[in-house]
Design a protein that fits this description.
Helix content: over 70%
Largest sheet: none
Shape: globular
Structural class: mainly alpha
Number of strands: 0
Strand content: under 5%
Radius of gyration: 22 Å
Number of helices: 19
Length: 460
């Protein structure tokens, strides 16, 4: 069990360090200072955050009264009310990939085709499918898509609450779920037609149910349900597809007789693949190639592995030349070949880019506020909201890093370590940006809330 604690502690520390170092790394785009100055800024920021975290941990926490059901209902209400209120006043117009999802939803509803002008597999189908149901009901997509996001976020709260309660009790459950309910970037992001809220909902329930899998009476039925949830999550973001492998690797670690648990996780993966089979067959029929996920792997690979790559998203004029070949699947294959060839020819440069991708992954939480507050009426508060989002994010990271070592040594933390390590592994290849870490916010809330509750309980 000590190994599980070390994994949680190491993961939380790595995220904190990447989050703190990612702030000056991202600001470097607009503020150019010598490396020594950035190192000093990073050290000062880290020390300040850790000091503030220690001070907060010293504050006495009142014992929550009432039943678990009452607290859970209350936190769900807070999460829903704050997000609904923001969606109703936000006036956020879909742009960039958010506009793409809206257009794909229109095509699904009215042309019965996934693809605006022709069949496509470039974007994941899950979120546009949900939007298409709203569109076919005659609802305004920006408004009702945001309300759906608010409901999805509120439905994420019970998984956080139950997971944290299993780990460290009611105080932990309340703290972790409240952190999520009040997370500024999560609230602001609800007005965007983005994949994050739906993916966060599915991913968090997968992680919680995976944490209880070893101790339920009917694990094989739960494994089937987990497989279906993983398949659903993969329809929203393909990052979910390797998750069963990561979960199995952590769950089996240190076990003497892992065969039964190995079979359960194999069933999870097989069920997820079976759920994705219809999409693969559709791609074979419409696109000429069997593919269980999207056709944007190559286009994404070259963003992080090319001559002008720096770990972050790069604009079109900085990307390498990719041969123009007919067909979306062929274009994806051509882009993959370009990226693979560059990695083969520049192995040292590829290795140097890995930590920069991690810094961009855990960089400042500016995207949600930046995209959600583009309307003229919010320009006066946009930068303040971005700063508040980042301050909240860094403080929770500091708390998680400080208290992760205090968490009880239990297998219930294995899924948290698995998903954090999986995202680090994925971004060895792919570029990073702060929107990518948004689905991991519930895990960060779990670590911070459960760790703080454990520490204050011991002190009392």
């Amino acid at each position: 069990m000590a190994l599980q604690r070390h994994l949680v502690k190491g993961s939380a520390a790595a995220v904190f360090l990447a989050g703190v170092a990612g702030l000056p790394f991202s600001l470097e785009q607009s503020v150019h200072l010598p490396l020594a100055v950035w190192l000093a800024v990073t050290a000062l920021l880290a020390a300040t955050l850790l000091g503030l975290g220690r001070w907060l941990l010293g504050r006495p926490l009142p014992e929550p009264r009432g039943t678990d059901a009452q607290w859970l209902l209350g936190v769900c209400g807070v999460a829903l009310a704050t997000r609904v209120a923001w969606v109703l006043v936000a006036d956020t117009e879909p742009v960039s990939d958010f506009a793409d999802y809206r257009n794909l939803a229109h095509a699904l509803c009215h042309a019965h085709r996934f693809g605006v002008s022709e069949a496509s597999a470039f974007r994941p189908v899950g979120w546009p499918f949900v939007l298409s149901l709203l569109d076919c009901a005659g609802l305004d997509l920006p408004r009702w898509g945001g309300l759906f996001n608010a409901a999805a976020q509120a439905a994420t709260v019970p998984a956080i609450f139950l997971w944290a309660r299993d780990l460290a009790g009611r105080r932990a459950a309340l703290g972790a779920s409240l952190l999520f309910a009040l997370w500024p970037a999560q609230i602001l992001g609800c007005s965007l037609l983005a994949t994050e809220p739906l993916f966060t909902l599915l991913l968090t329930w997968v992680l919680y149910l995976a944490s209880v899998l070893p101790r339920v009476r009917r694990p094989w039925l739960l494994a089937l349900a987990l497989g279906a949830l993983v398949g659903g999550a993969a329809y929203v973001r393909s990052t979910a597809l390797p998750l069963p492998i990561a979960l199995a690797a952590l769950a089996l670690l240190g076990r003497r007789r892992p065969w039964r648990l190995l079979g359960q996780h194999a069933l999870i993966l097989a069920t997820a693949l079976l759920c994705l089979l219809p999409w693969g067959l559709r791609n074979q029929r419409e696109m000429g190639k069997f593919s269980l996920t999207t056709s944007n792997e190559g286009a994404t690979l070259i963003l992080g592995n090319s001559e002008n790559a720096d770990g972050r998203y790069i604009e079109a004029d900085q990307r390498p030349f990719v041969p123009d070949v007919p067909g979306e699947m062929a274009q994806d294959a051509a882009a993959r070949q370009v990226a693979h060839a560059w990695i083969t020819q520049h192995p040292l440069r590829f290795l140097q880019l890995i930590p920069r991708k991690w810094l961009a992954l855990w960089g400042p939480e500016f995207s949600e506020a930046g995209w959600a507050m583009r309307a003229p009426r919010w320009q006066f508060a946009r930068e303040a909201a971005m700063a508040a989002s980042e301050a909240f994010f860094l403080l929770v990271l500091a708390l998680a890093a400080l208290v992760a070592r205090r968490l009880p040594a239990q297998r219930v933390t294995d899924p948290a370590s698995a998903v954090l390590l999986l995202f680090f592994a994925v971004h060895v290849l792919f570029h990073g940006q702060d929107r990518f870490h948004a689905p991991l916010v519930p895990v960060l809330c779990l670590l911070a809330g459960a760790g703080c509750a454990t520490l204050t309980t011991k002190r009392r």
